Amino acid sequence: MLLKVDGITKAFGGVKAVQGASFDVKEGSITALIGPNGAGKTTAFNLVSGFMRPDEGTIQFDGRRTERLSGHTVARHGLVRVFQTARVFTQMTVLENLLIAARHQPGEKFGAAWLMPGRTSRREREIRREAEERLALVRLTHLTHERAGALSGGQRKLLELARALMVQPKMILLDEPMAGVAPVLGEQLMEHIKELREKAGITVLIIEHDIDLVMSISDRVIVMDEGRVIADGPPDAIQANERVITAYLGRNAGAAA
Ligand SMILES: Nc1ncnc2c1ncn2[C@@H]1O[C@H](COP(=O)(O)OP(=O)(O)OP(=O)(O)O)[C@@H](O)[C@H]1O
């Protein structure tokens, strides 16, 4: 197991967003985290990625306890979060967005020298080649020198994904990557996610509301409801699970009433 989450709890005032949730993510898997609105999925992501500290419980990533570490440190250990809203630098080109991300790699001490023509070392050329590879992986090569601000929402998400890959993560957390993306680009994005696992061996944990998509892409599905993990298993078993059906249908019936 690459990630082991044991009994994490997080409350905001009186609201227990996550209540003693435990789950594991196997190395090399695509695992989906699903559940009705307010189930605690985003809070669980915040805890796992070091953006928040749990009130209780432990988190182990790649054999190391991480629940007290900052998001920055967790990312340096190889667990990187890709945001629902792409946070690209709009004034920079697509390529520059990736080069900047590489600066935060462990061991990178130099400044923005490689953004200046004529001052490229071997390492800088390597980084540039890596950036070009990442852009090819998400099919953005044709936009390499375009200003990031000119990209569509879906393209920005692909850029954000490529940027997260610049730090060579072992695992990425994707929060609703399909939200607001045109269907054609969404399908491509899914293909890229599968390729990440197949070609780069990256482990993926994904929050996604589109159940059909979750069922088609993931090896395992973890279901949360009211801050707890209520089911965990392969997609077909989850689809047939009575507690899961009740959690979703019960909520929908309530909303319709
Ligand atoms: N920073 C916060 N302050 C107060 N309450 C919060 C905060 N973050 C989350 N909550 C509450 O915690 C509960 C779980 O929220 P969370 O966003 O983790 O659920 P979710 O499963 O990601 O939902 P959605 O699918 O709607 O994004 C909700 O009741 C939410 O209102």
Describe, in plain words, how this protein is organized in 3D.
The chain has nine helices and ten strands. It has 257 residues and is an alpha/beta fold. A six-stranded mixed sheet has the order 6-7-8-3-9-10, with helices on both faces. Strands 2-1-4-5 form a four-stranded antiparallel sheet, with helices on one face. It has helices spanning 41-48, 71-76, 94-102, 122-137, 153-165, 183-200, 211-217, 235-239, 242-256, and strands at 3-12, 15-25, 30-34, 56-61, 64-65, 79-82, 171-175, 203-207, 220-225, 228-233. The longest helix is centred in the C-terminal third of the chain and has 18 residues, at 183-200. Adenosine-5'-triphosphate (ATP) binds at residues 12, 15, 17, 35, 37-43. Pfam families: ABC_tran (PF00005), BCA_ABC_TP_C (PF12399). Keywords: ATP-binding, Nucleotide-binding, Transport. Residues 3-251 form the ABC transporter domain. This is ABC-type branched-subunit amino acid transport system ATPase component.
Write a concise synopsis of the structure shown.
Keywords: ATP-binding, Nucleotide-binding, Transport. The chain contains 9 helices and 10 strands.
Task: Summarize the helices and strands and which ones pair or pack.
Layout: E1 3-12, E2 15-25, E3 30-34, H1 41-48, E4 56-61, E5 64-65, H2 71-76, E6 79-82, H3 94-102, H4 122-137, H5 153-165, E7 171-175, H6 183-200, E8 203-207, H7 211-217, E9 220-225, E10 228-233, H8 235-239, H9 242-256
Parallel strand pairs: 3-8, 3-9, 6-7, 7-8
Antiparallel strand pairs: 1-2, 1-4, 4-5, 9-10
Helix pairs in contact: 3-4, 3-5, 4-5
This protein binds adenosine-5'-triphosphate.
Adenosine-5'-triphosphate (ATP) is lined by residues 12, 15, 17, 35, 37-43.
